[in-house]
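Complex 387.
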Amino acid sequence: MKTQTLAVHAGQQPDPSTGALNTPVYLTSTYSYGTAQEGKDRFAGKNPGYIYSRFANPTSSALEQKLAALEGADEAVVVASGMAAISSIVYALTQQGDEVAFIDPVYGGTDAFLRNTLVRAGVKVVSYSSDDDFVSRHNPNTRLVLWEPVTNPTLKVVDSRKIIAVAKQIGAITVCDNTFLTPALFQPLSIGADLVMHSGTKYLCGHGDIIAGVIAGNGPLIQRVRTVALKHIGVPMGPQEAYLLQRGVKTLPLRMRAHCDNAKAVAEFLATQEKVAAVYFPGLAAHPGHQAIADTASGFGGMVALELHGGFDACARLLDNLTLFAQAVSLGDLESLACHPASTTHAAMTPDDRARANVTDKLVRLSIGVEDIEDLLADLAQALAKV
Ligand SMILES: Cc1ncc(COP(=O)(O)O)c(C=O)c1O
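Predicted structure with pyridoxal-5'-phosphate bound:
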């Protein structure tokens, strides 16, 4: 079935006891298994059946089925946040002495986790400046490589096909952070990635009311990640969040179309503005990554970045004068959001790392919502006039 049909139907069955069409929210920490033998069997994995909600919960299981269907994955596991997804993947699949590679830039929290925390577990972390840099300089001993196909916050394109081809030759596990494009536009597993992950907080949810993480991929890898994430680190998604996330995902393809259309119009408008020094949006034909996304995805996403002449002060002038866009971190909500990444989402990076990743003081990131495009353009025009 097609993506929009799966988004609505996958993982959802009428509740067997009541016929309720919507997946119930199972607010329970534990499950009665009735007999000692049944308890023994469930713990031995012989019987399907729930034991304890840190390990699995029916609301989360239904969501996992929906997300696995959308990603074309054997299995999915949902966790407490996007950072819980990243750290669980890396702790589950690497060990002391291994090397983890990533393509610059990534979300500032990911960068900080890899460079500051993961290295303390004895894992070597190496960053590459682009897909081509990874192709030419990669270390054959790399164990895992992580990338964002459209990077946060510079909207640079990393060609997933190049990363996957090299990783396959050297036997590295490929992990695509697909938060910006979502399975409505791009399915990394279909072109050979081992795992795809998301900050479900963003477009998958779409309504800005939860923190959530998602990992999907081949069965054996997901089993290992599931055990570490849920049993060892202990970062399950709660059932209320799982309910809200499955409700949001039902409209994901519809919402993504609106985000993509609005973002394209905003990027085209900004490109005509004298006060704007540069516009970054892969949907513009002049963007160096335009073709790579056009070849692999069905849309360019809802994120736009721009640079102003001047630094923080010029950006603050723009941001402080926006009235419809909220000044806030996060992205992928129905509401349009704007932020200055160097001083917010990517503030945890060192100035050197930020400079290497082109996260400059003159950069503003826009998450384009689903409001009427005329109102969005009018807000940007009046704020730019005051810069
Ligand atoms: C691309 C990307 N990956 C991961 C994360 C982390 O997700 P969360 O905030 O849900 O932990 C974010 C958060 O902004 C992000 O933008």
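The chain is about 40% helix and 15% strand.
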